[in-house]
């Protein structure tokens, strides 16, 4: 609640019109902004999901195309590797003369390769080497760069698989996709007889694999082998033959089972999807630039922005009109109040609205009219009061004369042995002394109990009742300060309402205890009790005075006085049972008088 109070207090530092404008704008901007951002986010998520599905389907198709294309070259390598003539030539290369080598070349081209020449459109080089690095056969118009063969042989020897796929550099600097096949002896008793090198034109290979695939402007598809060498790509955004480490942005995002991610490079930021061919140990990566993906979403973003802006402008204009419908009548109301403050009680406000401000204006007009009438009435009453005061001065009785007269009547009653009359007059004199002469608002609990005793004596004389009161108050609490007439109205309420019509001797029991810094007083009677639906009415302020009361102070007045003097934590608590009686708990602070002694001690017994 403290937070709410602080917010309300802070907001009231500005005018109603400003608060209305801010509130309307917030209520329009926040939902519109949230809706726009949410719509844009959901749209992007949908685009990403559909793109992921689309690219994944393409990569599966590419994987199938790659497998088909690679199988052609693997079959070629199988045909060469399994040929018995080539096996014998590799095994006995040192014993072959030039004629036998030429015959082998003729045999290769006219027998082994005759039905495979359609493949040679994409083959740049085909070479067979012996186990000791001698060239047995070399076909092709392209020559490898110096030093490539040893490097390729080293890769093939370190690979546990029969086939090694990598990229080689030709003598003219172009890159070629290279298949290196280890040629084992068919009898299985010897080590590798040699190696087959098949160089494939990477550009033609790329066109065959990726030519029919279009993933959007600026997109690319990349093939990497298991060691991280970039074998081929469609648009060559990444150089063919480069080694791609696991820390490179192109591979860093790949964390199974994650199949999609974001790749940031010098050329831009891409939405990436990859597929892994376990047989070849190739990774096929599809890259779609976010600039292409976000083309439509950016258009939608602009449309959302303009829609939100127009809605805000409309809300602002609407807010101005609504706030003006509140602030302008309020300004007229304030102007009328200022006129009244300046003494113009005839001021009236004209308002033809149908809202609460019209109601306030009507009430203001009624108030000013009533105020004028009350001022006239007050002036008349003041004149009558002054006249009455003059008359009262002529008939005023001295309080001391009143008390001396009561004491004289008391002694006369005692001499006449009218004890009840004597006691009643004595009690009345003491009660009037405490009420009229002693002006202190707080008295000791001892004196309050004394006044209560005097009041009960008067009641017994008046009604001839057998009412009994018992007190159980510790001595150390008798000097505690309480409000004057704290207990008397409560006891009076029990006598007037509680004991009416009961068939048992009325009793009132009073006790007190100290709980920390709190004084708790209990007042209990054995009357007829209070119905539950009347308990709350009992605590209301006593608007109708009772002529039978001593001072027209009711239970509600007692509660209000406690709240007024000591604050909200203190007050009255009432419980009641029908035909069993009523119990009232009074809670007030425990306060001792300055000096520790109450000067108005009546010596009430306990």
Description:
- This protein has 15 helices and 17 strands.
- By secondary structure, the chain is α+β, with helices and mostly antiparallel strands.
- It has 3 domains: 16-308, PAS domain (Beta-Lactamase); 345-395; 466-589, Histidine kinase-like ATPase, C-terminal domain (Heat Shock Protein 90, 2-Layer Sandwich).
- The strands form 4 sheets. Strands 2-1-5-4-3 form a 5-stranded antiparallel beta sheet, sandwiched between helices.
- A hairpin with a 4-residue loop joins strand 9 (268-277) and strand 10 (282-289).
- The longest helix has 67 residues, at 16-82.
- The radius of gyration is 55 Å and the shape is elongated.
- The chain starts with a helix and ends in a 17-residue tail after the last strand.
- The model is unreliable at 388-398 and 597-606 (pLDDT under 50).
SSE layout:
Elements: H1 2-11, H2 16-82, H3 84-91, H4 98-112, E1 123-130, E2 135-139, H5 148-158, E3 163-169, E4 175-184, E5 192-201, H6 202-210, E6 220-224, E7 230-233, H7 249-252, E8 260-265, E9 268-277, E10 282-289, H8 290-341, H9 356-395, H10 399-415, H11 419-437, E11 442-444, H12 445-463, E12 468-472, E13 481-483, H13 488-498, E14 507-515, E15 518-525, H14 532-538, H15 555-566, E16 571-577, E17 581-589
Parallel strand pairs: 12-14
Antiparallel strand pairs: 1-2, 1-5, 3-4, 4-5, 6-7, 6-10, 8-9, 9-10, 11-13, 14-15, 15-17, 16-17
């Amino acid at each position: 609640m403290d937070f709410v109070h602080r917010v309300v207090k802070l907001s009231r530092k500005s005018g109603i019109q400003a608060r209305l404008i801010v509130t309307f704008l917030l209520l329009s901007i926040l939902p519109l902004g949230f809706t726009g951002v949410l719509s844009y986010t959901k749209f992007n998520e949908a685009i990403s999901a559909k793109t992921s599905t689309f690219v994944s389907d393409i990569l599966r198709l590419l994987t199938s195309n790659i497998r088909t294309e690679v199988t052609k070259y693997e079959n070629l390598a199988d045909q060469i590797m399994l040929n018995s003539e080539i096996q014998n030539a590799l095994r006995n290369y040192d014993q072959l003369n030039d004629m036998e080598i030429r015959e082998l070349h003729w045999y290769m081209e006219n027998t082994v390769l005759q039905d495979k020449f359609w493949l040679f459109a994409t083959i740049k080089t085909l070479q067979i080497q012996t186990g000791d690095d001698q060239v047995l056969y070399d076909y092709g118009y392209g020559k490898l760069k110096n030093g490539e063969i040893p490097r390729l042989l080293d890769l093939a020897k370190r690979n546990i698989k029969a086939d090694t796929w990598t990229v080689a550099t030709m003598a003219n600097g172009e890159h070629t996709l290279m298949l290196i096949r280890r040629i084992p002896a068919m009898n299985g008793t010897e080590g590798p007889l040699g190696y087959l090198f098949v160089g494939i034109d990477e550009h033609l290979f790329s066109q065959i694999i990726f030519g029919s695939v279009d993933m959007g402007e600026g997109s690319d598809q990349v093939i990497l082998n298991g060691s991280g060498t970039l074998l081929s790509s469609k648009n060559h955004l990444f150089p063919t033959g480069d080694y791609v480490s696991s820390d490179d942005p192109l591979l860093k995002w790949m964390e199974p089972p994650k199949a999609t991610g974001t790749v940031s490079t010098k050329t831009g930021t891409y939405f990436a999807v990859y597929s892994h061919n376990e047989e070849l140990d190739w990774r096929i990566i599809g890259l779609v630039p976010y600039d292409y993906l976000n083309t439509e979403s950016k258009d939608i973003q602009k449309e959302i922005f303009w829609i939100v802006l127009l809605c805000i402008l409309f809300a602002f204009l609407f807010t101005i009109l609504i706030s003006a419908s509140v602030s302008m009548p309020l300004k007229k109301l304030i102007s009328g109040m200022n006129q009244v403050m300046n003494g113009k009680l005839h001021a009236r406000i004209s308002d033809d609205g149908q809202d609460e401000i019209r109601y306030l204006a009507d009430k203001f007009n009624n108030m000013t009219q009533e105020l004028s009438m009350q001022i006239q009435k007050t002036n008349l009453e003041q004149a009558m009061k002054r006249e009455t005061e003059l008359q009262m001065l002529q008939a005023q009785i001295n309080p001391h004369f009143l008390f001396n007269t009561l004491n004289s009547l008391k002694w006369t009653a005692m001499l006449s042995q009218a004890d009840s009359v004597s006691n009643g007059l004595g009690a009345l004199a003491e009660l009037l002394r405490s009420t009229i002469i002693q002006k202190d608002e707080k008295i000791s609990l001892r004196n309050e109990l004394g006044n209560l005793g005097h009041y009960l004596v008067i009641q017994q004389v008046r009604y001839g009742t057998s009412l009994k009161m018992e007190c159980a108050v510790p001595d150390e609490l008798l000097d505690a300060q309480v409000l004057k007439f704290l207990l008397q109205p409560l006891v009076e309420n029990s006598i007037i309402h509680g004991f009416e019509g009961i068939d048992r001797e009325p009793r009132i029991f009073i006790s007190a205890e100290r709980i920390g810094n709190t004084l708790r007083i209990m007042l209990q009677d054995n009357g007829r009790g209070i119905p539950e639906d009347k308990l709350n009415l009992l605590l209301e302020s006593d608007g109708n005075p009772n002529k039978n009361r001593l001072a027209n102070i009711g239970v509600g007045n007692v509660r209000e006085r406690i709240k007024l003097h000591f604050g909200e934590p203190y007050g009255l608590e009432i419980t009641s049972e029908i035909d069993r009686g009523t119990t009232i708990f009074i809670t007030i602070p425990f306060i001792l008088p300055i000096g520790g002694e109450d000067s108005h001690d009546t010596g009430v017994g306990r």
